[in-house]
Design goal:
7-stranded mixed sheet, alpha/beta, single chain, 3-stranded parallel sheet, 6 helices, globular
Length: 196
């Protein structure tokens, strides 16, 4: 918190699993956060409940966003949300879907001509649904790989639809032996996609 940052406009939580929001409670306590965007699902664990308490205590505006919505930051920068849709959220809330990862927010950051696709922890089923729904309209320059580069996602059809030039894999220091999977890395090598 000593980096001179005293305000954050928007925090996005793709879904309420610990590894996607842990640490944000301290951020909210120490830095003015204006907006929180999430998928609207609330889980009943003490860490998430503490986070929601701090959000309310510090007057952070919480907004639920699903596919089809946009956030405009200015005339050159906007986010477009591609998943989940209300059917996925309703299925999760009714217990028909039990995997919280399927409810991950998927969104694309657009800055001038640059497009960066963020995928949370979606799996192969959601990737294929997005590929079919958006086809060429999901093409992006940079792809943040889903679920830390595990073999449950990063399907051939999704990579071939998104056509990224660069991929980014986010994995914790203690997860480096598990992620990314060799199968996923091979897909990048085969397509000459840079990966970080």
């Amino acid at each position: 918190f000593g980096e001179g940052i005293n305000k954050i406009n928007t925090i996005i939580i793709t879904h309420p699993q610990k590894d996607h929001f842990i640490g944000l409670t301290d951020v909210v306590k120490n830095i003015k956060v204006e907006h929180l965007v999430d998928n609207g699902i609330t889980v009943q664990n003490i860490i998430y409940q503490e986070f929601l308490y701090e959000i309310k205590k510090h007057f952070v505006n919480r907004t639920t966003i699903l596919s089809g919505n946009k956030i405009n930051f200015d005339n050159m920068v906007f986010l477009e949300f591609l998943s989940p849709d209300s059917d996925i959220i309703n299925s999760y809330e009714k217990g028909f879907i039990t995997d919280l990862n399927k409810t991950s927010l998927v969104f694309r950051l657009n800055y001038k001509k640059l497009k960066i696709l963020f995928t949370g922890d979606i799996d192969a089923e959601i990737e294929e649904k997005l590929s079919g729904k958006y086809s060429e309209n999901i093409k992006s320059d940079i792809l943040k790989i889903a679920h830390h580069g595990s073999s449950t996602s990063t399907t051939d059809i999704f990579l071939d639809t998104v056509k990224p030039l660069i991929t980014i894999i986010s994995a914790g220091k203690n997860e480096m032996a598990l992620f990314p999977s060799k199968e996923v890395v091979f897909k990048f090598v085969k397509r000459n996609i840079k990966y970080y």
